[in-house]
Amino acid sequence: MSDSPEQKGLASDGEKGRLVVAISSRALFDLEEAHRIFEQQGLEAYARYQIERENEILGPGIAFPLVRKLLALNQALPPAGPKVEVILLSRNSSDTGLRVFNSIEHYGLEISRAVFTGGAPLSRYVRPFGADLFLSADPEDVRRALQEGVAAATILGGPGSPAEYTQTQELRIAFDGDAVIFGDEAERVTAEAGFDAFRLSEQAQAERPLSAGPFKGFLQALHLLQQALPSEHPPIRTALVTARSAPAHKRVILTLRHWGVRIDEALFLGGLDKGPFLAAFGADIFFDDQRGYVERAARHVPAGHVPHGVRNPS
Asked: Which of the four pLDDT bands, split at 50, 70 and 90, describes residue 161?
């Protein structure tokens, strides 16, 4: 399907001294009631609803705790080191989007750059900002961003309210491996020839690094931040949470070593439900390419569907 950032020739902005995350207003704030009015009554009713309530503060959305933790990293990073920037993208007009900016100011979020498209797709602006990651509630915007070579996911909520998601002070991000961090060549073998063929293929190619997936650049940008942060009690922790098990683990470990990328924890679950393990890790978000896995994970933690690879035909 889509090319990875490396295949597209898109340099991660982490290499330029900052991690850039673009996020839709529906992922950052609870806009579900407003969105329902838009779908049922149309644009005019939606605009009237938002303008009448522009001084009412929006509640946190699914990604709100993640964004707050991302921005808090700037307090721990050295002045001359890399920085984190969050960009707001919204299908509101500038007029109806005033409620969104009022809410940003209320919560003290350091977000100064924003785009209001008046109903047009958001994905066209993700790449010009140099985003390392795009999170949205709209699957089509996510697909288009992936096709542009940007790591992107459709975000789904965990249990309870967003305020209840955060279990730790650290930013904790978990990734599936195949078709997320890595390419989907191993999943293609499974889809075409079955699990036994996958196992034999991975054993035969254990010393050959996997190709880059759409989230390699984002993982590298996180790694650069980790290097700039204090080594004692680091505020970022990453985990690989995969259905792989031994002996298919070796190729994954050697690929990460070949890339020079740090993963703090690796869970090779051999097909077990990932949700309880993600809850135990305390993930602020988990990224997976298989929609079913994402929906099950979202019963425990916020999760993002990455519509990439053989499991997500275009």
From this structure: low
Residue 31: phi and psi, rounded to 5, are -115, 20
- pLDDT for 196 beyond 60: yes
Distance separating alpha carbons of residues 245 and 268, to the nearest angstrom: 5
Of the three residues 94, 128, 156, the one that is the final residue of a domain is 156
Cα 192 from Cα 14, distance rounded (Å)? 36
The torsion angles phi and psi of 230, rounded to 5 degrees, stand at -55, 135
**125 lies in the same domain as 265:** no
Greatest Cα pair distance, the chain, in angstroms, is 64
The reply to whether 196 and 289 lie within a common domain is: yes
176 catalytic per annotation: yes
Domain that holds residue 297: 171-305
pLDDT at 159: 58
pLDDT, one tens digit per residue, over 123-132 is 999 999 999 9
Set 176, 178, 284, 289: catalytic member: 176
Stated pTM of the model: 0.90
